[in-house]
Amino acid sequence: MKFKRILAAIVSVIVIILGYSLHHFIKTKKTHFLSNGGFDRNYLPIQSELKLVAPSLETLYRFSHSNNTNFTIGHCDKSLVKITYENDLLEFTPIRNIPVFANSEYFSDDTNENIYILNKNNLITTRVKLFPGFSKRIISKNEQLGQGIEPVIFSDNKLICVRATNKKWHFQFQHNKLLSKNKMTLIKLVDQGSIKHFTLNNTFIYVSLFSNEIIQFDSTFNVICQAKTIDTIRLKPKTKEINNSLVFSSPPRVSNYDFFISKNQLFIRSIVKSNREIDFKKKIVFDIYDINKKFKYVGSFFLEHPNEDYPTDMHLLNNNNLLLLYENRIEVFNIKI
């Protein structure tokens, strides 16, 4: 009987330990990866007006990610277009004489004056100059930029960096020297978010796609500031290497979808619900951070979103007109920032 009581006590202790461990695991996973809440938003009285809802081109799937506020370049399956918004009209102007092939990727610089064509077969990049009036001529060819998939950083209207999918590959720069201690950090960063140029002080800002991390780099990519978004999503998804490429071990959770910069403020589109938030699925939410105050949280605002689908891309034009790209339409919001 004594042995049975001891055995029962041991089993009870094991059950309690396993139960507590399981509860802690579920709570931790929910808090840091799956949950909503855990933070509060302060919504500011920022006014916005839906100016236009226009049909999108049938095969338009993204905008070039640049800081140009005069226009954006739209990427279609077989062509590129210049997109402008003036006098409450959205215009699509075809960009001629730039062949679009399935084995190539197309990108533009921060002025949208150059198109970079990366051949994925031989990894050769060609630069195409867009002259005033948009008559096109190729002015330089075969600019070898090293291995990679996506050009992500621009300086002085020139491509200076491409993104790697192979973790063993290092960034190739045309002008700036990169400290070796930062190479693997940058490769890890661009696999999980985007980097954009902050023109007011010539720095670069990174916002993680899958966590609450913000990092600011100087012009040679030394870390000068690290901060966090207000959400509680801090654990990053795990990756593994298959055929020399990095892939996710499990489907990741997106927390901060995209961002744009206006003056000295960072506007991050968050898709994480805060405490006591009502009708979150009917909002497109932006959290605002002051870049000059080490990304101090300023407040939030939202755009009304009565539809079921969500924008796949966005671009800020002059007078704070924000283009939101959907599968079959483009919405233009004017934001009183």
Automatic annotation (TrEMBL):
This is DUF4221 domain-containing protein. It comes from Aquirufa beregesia.
